[in-house]
Amino acid sequence: MAEKLAPEKRHRFLHNVFEWDQTLDEINIYINLPPNVHSKQFYCKIQSKHIELGIKGNPPYLNHELTCPVKTDSSFWTLEDDVMHITLTKRDKGQTWASPIMGQGQLDPYVTDQEQKRLMLQRFQEENPGFDFSQAQFTGSCPDPRTFMGGIRSD
After folding, report:
1. Given this model, what pLDDT does residue 81 score?
2. Environment class of residue 154 by beta-carbon count within 10 Å: exposed (0-12), middle (13-18) or buried (19+)?
3. pLDDT of amino acid 82
4. pLDDT value at position 1?
5. Residue 147: left (phi > 0), alpha (psi -120 to 50), or beta?
6. What is the mean pLDDT of the chain?
């Protein structure tokens, strides 16, 4: 049932350099890699509030501050089928990000509201695994999934 609440599509920003989506716990960034470059030449450095990636020996492909802090010990990157997939673990579970990169392509208010509603439904699903919230809808504004009714329970 939780799969039904997964992101339906990715957001595309920074002149189509990357796409991204989010869950309660993670921000996922997808970057199409240039052809004819061996995978061992790529690097990605993830810090609490900064990300840098590129091809070794060249200026970074991306070198930006993150919108919100992440947990570096559980954030990672992989390469598969010419795509770099970066998984950033949110420091504040349930926080709705309008963009992963500071000052770059913020989601408009309507899309941000839709993301917040989807994350709230993910939270309900996680807290009540026997129920299916995939068809649930909010009327009016949606509460913050991170703080609603005492906040997200810690494991």
Report:
1. 86
2. exposed
3. 87
4. 44
5. alpha
6. 86
Q: Which residues pair with 30 in a beta bridge?
A: 19, 85
pLDDT computed for residue 149 by the predictor = 80
What residue type is 23 in one-letter code?
Answer: T
Q: What does pTM read for this prediction?
A: 0.83
Structural domains of the chain sorted by starting position, each given as residue range(s) with its CATH number in brackets = 2-146 (2.60.40.790)
**Cα–Cα distance measured from residue 30 to residue 13, given in angstroms and rounded to the nearest whole number:** 11
Residue 110 to residue 100: CA distance in whole angstroms: 17
Residue with tokens 């995939």: 134
Phi, psi (5° rounding) for residue 149?
50, 55
Which residues on neighbouring strands pair with residue 135, listed in sequence order?
Answer: none
If one counts every other C-beta atom within 10 angstroms of the C-beta of residue 115, the result is 20
